Amino acid sequence: MAYFVRIVTERCAFDIRLNDVPVLPPGTPTRDVEVTLPVNHWVVPGRNTLSVVPDLQGQRKAQGACESSVALLSAPAGKPASARAPLIEMRWPAAGPRPKEPFAAARAQVELPESLPAWAWMRSDVIAADRRTRAELVREYQRLWDAASRREVRQVLPAFAERNRELAAAFHTEEAEMARRAAMLEKLSQDRSLALFPLEPEDAELVVFAGGRLAKLTRWDGQPMLAFNYKDGSGSETFDVVFRRSGGRWVIAR
Question: Record's superkingdom (predicted)?
């Protein structure tokens, strides 16, 4: 099966999560969004939870009432978009009095068959959101950044083995295909039109999610730590990495 989250929103800012994993890619605006995203790699066997946390304070700054809908969809793998059927569908604002507190949450759950494996991160160590975790992850990102700065990313590609294997299982494709996608970091580092952006670990933000089983660092603006700027100033490219912790060892999970 293939699973998707469909987001349609107007004049709203919010955080959408599937099993406590942020659905929108890093840096994506959360207001005025219309997008459908594949989420097989975050679907778990059994109970799955889709949650929406609107920022009502941000909403009040917009003109007009907030309108949004969020849905978890499914379809047989390989079928067109017209075959996708809703498993969960939520609309905002919900019926009833308008909440007065700064944040209001909506949540729905669905039981799914075990068509996808139990991911390694589901049985990983619980990660503490503290300075020690942050310092350890800085070292992990520094290792990747150093390899990119030397244009020797191939040396660290074996660290993506679990990520490649699980993404291949999630999206019903070959592991080699996911390995090619992981190698995009090498391609970016070799591109002479790009300049690797400084890591700036002192400004990094620690993000722990998936019930404390996954973590990553982001820049102050939520963008991935590994970033490349086009030398002509036309834009940038980023490469996101998510870690789990097992027996004191950090593993690239996504």
Answer: Bacteria
* Residues 107/52, Cβ–Cβ less than 8 Å: yes
Tokens of 133: 């975790």
pLDDT 10s digits, 24-43: 988 776 677 889 999 999 99
Taking CA 44 as the corner, what is the angle to CA 39 and CA 47, rounded to the nearest 5 degrees? 115
- The C-alpha atoms of residue 74 and residue 88 are separated, in whole angstroms, by 10
Cα–Cα distance for residue pair 135/137, rounded to 1 Å: 5
Burial (CB count <10 Å: 0-12, 13-18, 19+), residue 25: exposed
Three-state SS at 33: coil
**Domains of the chain and CATH, by start:** 2-116 (no CATH), 121-252 (3.10.450)
Show the beta-strand stretches assigned E in 102-225.
106-112, 194-196, 205-209, 214-218
Amino acid at 233: G
Q: What is the greatest pairwise CA distance in the chain?
A: 58
Residue bearing tokens 């990102």: 141
- The CA-atom distances, in angstroms, between 79 and each of 61, 72, 74 are 40, 16, 10
Q: Output the CA torsion sign for 28, 33, 38, 44.
A: positive
Asked whether the beta carbons of 87 and 74 are under 8 A apart, the reply is yes
Its pTM stands at 0.89
Instruction: Read off the pLDDT of residues 134-162 as tens digits, 9 standing for 90 and up.
Output: 999 999 999 999 999 999 999 999 999 99
Cβ count within 10 A of residue 213: 22
